[in-house]
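The step that takes the researchers longest sounds almost clerical: writing a folded protein down as plain text. Below is the pair of lines this work produces for a single protein:

——
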Amino acid sequence: MKTIYLGLGSNLGEREANLQRAIDLLAVEGLLLRRVSSVYESDPLYVTNQPPFLNLVVEAETNGFPRMLLRRTQRLEREMGRVRTIEKGPRLIDIDILLFGNFVVHAPELVIPHPRMHERRFVLEPLCEIAPELRHPITKQKFKDMFQLVRGQSCRKLALRLNLTQAPASEADSR
């Protein structure tokens, strides 16, 4: 089993419900969900004329491989209604593979570790909340040190936590 970290975000519709549904669906996809961070609200970084995002990070385990996980997460996004129109634009749900064990992947469709995670407070703060001693697999720098460099970005921890769900063992094992 490999430990993975996923970044989830939503800025359209019922944002909190979108995040919870994504967590629930990830559990059904055969991932063993371990921890979920608090929910953070942040202003959009790149395309700024859109609603604020709710974000969190999930720690899970999988016996699959990175491209298999990418196919699953993209299918879940589509099932939840995500339509990719504007790059970095508004979305019902976004599921990013941040880390996949110590794997380093450089493929046209997938880069791990996530290539922009070090510049995003809305990723680093929840990641550091659930895994404060974790290190970047390439630079070996602690993510909590990277977080210090983005503290000035707009991001606030909300007083809500989402439920970490697990699929029944037979359902998770069959995937």
The chain has five helices and eight strands. The domain at 2-168 is CATH 3.30.70.560 (Alpha-Beta Plaits).
